[in-house]
């Protein structure tokens, strides 16, 4: 095996994900069911290893990246109780690395959940999470939100259960998703109304959240998790002094 300066490894929804990094440059990536298998598939060894998702959780408000240590833990919130995973935390770091002095909100799509994260001064200030996409899948919805249904539940979220029943009877998957996303927008209004919003989702600018926010007239900057994880690892290398940092 070849040597590299450091390795990042951690569990995600599909198993374990590992990166061999030379300074701030990702050399290769590996995925596997176990940590040992992921490490072996990298083809690199390193004396310095950083574990993603391990360690004592940080509590909001907290720095986007810890200034020291061998782990990047999850972020928790006490009121309301919530958890932001370590990989999405790394994506936040990647986004901020490309948008200096960003003070606004990031809407992050992680599988079947969404997280609205308020960031400022390189801190995660607060966040709110929703299971709208999981509910849409369970109820037979799709990944397209019907605009009329979305507007209806955004203005009258208290009628969501009734709206969903009507959409179910009509056999309208887009309406099911539209009602759920509309109710989410109503609940998350404080996070996006009058804010600059970045959306991090696998579909990038084609994601459902980027599209519905643009329809609300919200200025949106889109990115994908795969893009943000590499930039996030570079930011992590600088924060932990794993690579030389320019004096200014």
Tell me the structural class. alpha/beta
Shape: elongated
Approximately how much beta-strand content do the residues carry? 25-35%
What about the largest sheet? Answer: 6 strands, mixed
CATH class of the largest domain: Alpha Beta
What proportion of the residues is helical, as a percent range?
A: 25-40%
How would you describe this structure to a colleague?
- With about 250 residues, this protein is α/β, with parallel strands linked by helices.
- It folds into 2 domains: about 1-50, no CATH class; about 55-248, 2-keto-3-deoxy-galactonokinase, C-terminal domain (Nucleotidyltransferase, domain 5, 2-Layer Sandwich).
- The chain contains 9 helices and 16 strands.
- The protein has helices at about 35-40, 85-100, 130-140, 145-155, 160-170, 175-185, 190, 210-215, 225-240; strands spanning about 1-5, 5-10, 15-20, 25-30, 45, 50, 60, 60-65, 70, 75, 80-85, 105-110, 115-120, 125-130, 195-200, 220-225.
- A 6-stranded mixed beta sheet has the order 8-14-13-12-15-16, sandwiched between helices. The chain has a 5-stranded mixed beta sheet with strand order 4-3-2-6-9. It has a 3-stranded mixed beta sheet with strand order 7-10-11.
- A hairpin with a 2-residue loop joins strand 3 and strand 4 (about 25-30).
- Helix 4 (about 145-155) packs parallel to helix 6 (about 175-185).
- The two termini are about 35 Å apart.
């Amino acid at each position: 095996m070849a040597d590299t300066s450091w390795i990042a490894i951690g569990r995600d929804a599909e198993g374990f994900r590992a990166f061999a990094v030379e300074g701030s440059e990702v050399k290769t990536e590996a995925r596997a069911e176990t940590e040992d298998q992921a490490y072996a598939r990298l083809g690199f060894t390193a004396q310095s290893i950083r574990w993603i998702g391990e360690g004592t959780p940080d509590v909001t408000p907290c720095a986007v990246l810890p200034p020291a240590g061998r782990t990047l833990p999850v972020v928790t919130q006490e009121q309301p109780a919530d958890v932001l995973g370590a990989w999405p935390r790394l994506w936040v770091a990647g986004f901020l690395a490309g948008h200096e002095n960003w003070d606004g909100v990031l809407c992050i799509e992680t599988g079947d959940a969404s997280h609205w994260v308020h960031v400022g001064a390189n801190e995660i200030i607060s966040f709110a999470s929703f299971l709208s996409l999981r509910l849409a899948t369970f109820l037979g919805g799709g990944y397209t939100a019907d605009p009329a249904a979305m507007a209806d539940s955004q203005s009258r979220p208290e009628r969501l259960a009734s709206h969903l029943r009507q959409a179910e009877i009509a056999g309208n998957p887009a309406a099911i998703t539209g009602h759920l996303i509309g109710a989410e927008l109503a609940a998350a209004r404080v996070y996006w109304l009058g804010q600059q919003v970045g959306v991090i989702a696998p579909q990038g600018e084609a994601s459902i959240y980027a599209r519905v926010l643009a329809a609300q007239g919200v200025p949106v900057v889109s990115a994908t998790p795969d893009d943000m994880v590499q930039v996030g690892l570079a930011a992590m290398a600088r924060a932990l002094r794993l690579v030389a940092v320019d004096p200014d």
